[in-house]
Every structure is written in C-alpha cells, then in structure tokens.
Write the structure tokens for this entry.
Amino acid sequence: MCRVQRAVICLLIAMPVLSFAQNDRNQQVRSLNSIIACMDESSRVNLQIYYDILSFSEAYIDNLQKRNDNRWHVSVSAGARLRSSDLSQYKELHPDAEGYINDWEAKLLPFIREKQNLQERLAKFPIKDEAIVSGFSSFMIAFDNMLYKYKAMVDYVQQQAFKNDDSLVRAKRLIDDLQPWFERYDAASKKLYQLMESYYRSLPPLRSQALIRQAQAELLLSTELVEKWAGELYAGDNSHRRHNDSLLRVLYATGKGKDAAYLKNTYGFGNLSNGAFPHSRYKTFYDFMPPTIFWYISDTASYNKLIPRAYDHYNRFVNRYNSVIHYYNQFIECADGQALARNMDYSMKMAAGVGADTAQNVLLKKPRIAYRFALETAPEEVPAAPAPADTADRRRREQIRGADPHHTVYLLDVSNSMKEENKLDTLKEAMKYLVNLQRPVDNISVIAFADNAETLLRFTACNEKDVIYKRIDRLKPNGGTNAGDAMRDGYKLIDSTQQYKGKTRLVIITDGLFSVDKATRKKVEAYQRAGVPLSILLLGKYHEQETLNYFQALCTKGNGRFYDMRRHNLKEALVEEAVN
C-alpha cells in the first residue's frame, strides 16, 4: 500500500472523529450563547429597574422638601394585563381564570422564556466547565435579589405606602436595599462572561469560515475599542472621550466599505433585502454606529444630579455600547446556520437554500452590560421641610426599637491612616451615637485592628453604655492594616456565642484596601450560609475602583452590604446594619 493510499485511509477513519469533535464543540458554544441570551434579557430588566429607581429617588427627594403624592410612579402598571397562548408552560407565571398575567410578570416574560430555553438546552447539552455553572448560579442569585428588592419598590408605589410613610424612612430603606445590587449584578455578569470566554478559548479551534472570521476581526477592532472605553468610564476616567471618539471614527471609515473585500463570496452578497446574509449584517453594524455611539461625544449638555457624575457618564455610554454589541452579535449569528434558521423563522431546508451551513464553526457572542446606581445626595444634605431638630434621632430610635434583638461584631480599623480627615474621631462619635440608641437586648463586640488585632468588647449588652463608651474612647491610631487576624478573631468570638438566639452579623469599618487569604474567604461564605452576613463600611474620600470592586465582591460572598461612605451618612449606615 502506497503512502498516498495510507493517508487517504487514515483521513477516512479520522473524519467521523473530527465530525463528532466539531459538533460537540459547536454544541458547547451554542450553550454558552444561550447563557448570553439569558443575560441579555436580564439586562433589559436591569435597564427598567434603573429608570424606576431614578424616578423613585426623585420622588423621595422632592417629597422630603414638599409632600406630593403624584410624584411617585414606576413603569410597572397596576392594572395592565397580558394574554398569550404559551403562558401556562412557564411555572413562574400565574395566569388568572381568563388566561391573563399582570404587568409585573409580563415585563419579566422575555427573560422567563429565555431562561426556560436555556434550561432545556442545558438539559441536552450541559456545559462541561463547572466554574461556568457556578458562575451562572451566582449571576442568577444577584439578579433574583435585585428583582426581589425592586418588587418591594414597585409594591410601595402601587399600594401607595408613601401615604403612611411620614418621615419617608421606608422609602429611603427601599432605595438603600436595591442600590448595592446594581454593583453585585454587574460584577456577577462580568465574572460569568470572563469564565465563558476563557472556556471558549480552550475549545479546539476550527478551520472553517475564513471569510466570516476575517470580517469578524474587522468588527472586533471597533467592539474592543468600545469595551476599553466602557472600562475607562466604569473606573471614573472620562479623559479619553475625544481620543476614543476619533479612533472609533477612523475604524468606522475604514471598516464600513470592506464588506466586498471580506464577504463577496458568501451567500446572498449584494442582496440587502435579507437581514440574514452576512454582508447585510456587516453593513448594519456600521450603519448604526453614527446614530448611537458617535452621539456620546456631544452628549454633554446636562447630567443627572441624583447619581455621581462618573456614574452618569458611564450610564450614558451603556445604551450606546449595548447597541454596538447587539449588531456585532447579529453578525456573529451568521456563523451558526442552525441559530440563524431558528431566529429568521427558516426551516433547515430553507436555511440551506440561502447557503447557510448548519454545522459551521459557531462563534461566541458578547453580553450587554449593566447600569450603575448610587444616590448622590444623602438625606441630611437635602433641604427638608421644617421639622424638629431631633427628627433623625427619633426616626433612628424607632428603627432600633422595631428591630429583632441583635449582636453586631465590629472590626474597627485603627491604623495610622485613620488619623487623616479626623476619620477615627468621627467613627468613635458615630459608634457611641449608635450604642446610645440601642436596647438592653442588643449586644456589641468590638475588635480593633492595626498591626495586630485586639478584642475590646466581647458580647456586651448595650445597657452597659459607660463601659462601652470608655472602651471606644481608648481607640488610637497606630500601625498598619491587619484585617485578616481581626476577621479570624471575629469569627472565633461568634463561635463562642452560638447559643445566642438573636441575629448576628460581622461589620468591618476601614479606610483602605486590605486583602484576605483563601481560607478566610471560605470562612466568609461558610458563616454567610450559617446566617452571619459580612458588611464593610469604607471611609475616606479617595479610592481606586479596584478597591471598591474588591470590597463589593467580598460583601457579596458574605451576603452583606458594601458602603462607600462617600455616598452614605455614617450614623445612618450603622443604624441600618444594626436593624437589618
């Protein structure tokens, strides 16, 4: 047998194996793209939540100044209903006797449909990377919590609870409860896509679709610039606005006319009437850049004063970013004839008729990104209607009175940097203020940390106010920031009070970044599962975005809250942590 014959025989033997490997690889990528489709529908809900919390916050601030019940509204209508033939197949929906669902469920229906499609797909073609499965679970937890907090806000408006919320305490709490979930949802979304992208790159590359992949490389020049730009804005850096705009316009001018160079030999070239053709989707990507992303450079006339300026810049960019990614994904879909046939309502025979290969090299899509929200103006900074001087004190005392008995373990940073801006003195005053409001059934523990950790109070009832005040007054700044030892000591202290029946939580108050090892992070998660959340209050005026992200992620693991104290009142935050 000659060498050529042997080669042919080997190729024939290998072909079924290669075909199976290609199909398996493509099914994995299709499953990843189904996750992205689910993420995209959740991001559209995130957009709705963002605009509603803005509206709700405006009503809250306006009503602090002058009561006006007509200011309260949300996009979910109390009376609207929807009827569809397929509603009964979704267990999350509750059609009435006439087959209608309310507007809340109607707004969620696209996400619910996509989620069920994903579940059905994963039942047949599960993702073979456990990290992605875990990441998707974390993403859904963040999204579900955001929905839960948002639903409370919707109910507040629809049930007109503002009429009985004299000091608007409940309204502010609803804002504060929903606010951190924007960052948690965003962090979970980004982490999930990072895991999917890493897994996608580990899959065996295929040699097919050279023309599609060449055109994709051209589109990626623009999408990657837009991704970089979004990252800069997220970090609060808007200084490259004009430079990025100039670069993008060059890429636009260069790339928009290359459809013939890349795609003249693909199916349907020259026929713009069919949106399923690669070249028509390529042109659509560029056609929608001028009316979307290029408008950002001139969008400077005004800004939303309810949120930090950096957040406003970022949010203005988000819609434009998501538009670019939407049209990029439409082109990427051309690499998957199976998905193209389904979405364009083709039969597989019709798809083949326009040249769509149903077993192509499926490419990974990109997800939309989320909005950011933080209320810029704290209640004490808002001009309020005339009221007794002790209104805030009275409101906070009522909050404490209505709370369950609790034990809070405070880990207080007393490093040298706490001398700056009178941070330690402010903290001591706020801690004593809180203790003054608390009841005999409430308990406090305090561990101070600098180079080392020192336990100052151990499960002390809050009626022993003089003892507590004296221990707090002993706090003096000295040394570095060894939070790891303080956390371990804090959890040991909690272990020693296991018989306590009230609520227990761990609260860290610091002014700078610290890191914890893997074992301590596992402890955070373990105690969270046992019902002991971890929250962090970050003092100080200037922090890197990396620090904020790190603390936010740590609090998410601990099922607690992260407070950037540039956006919060310290006394208010301490009361919130004590009562929630």
About this structure: Confidence is low (pLDDT under 50) at residues 3-20, 378-389. The first strand starts at residue 81 and ends at 83.
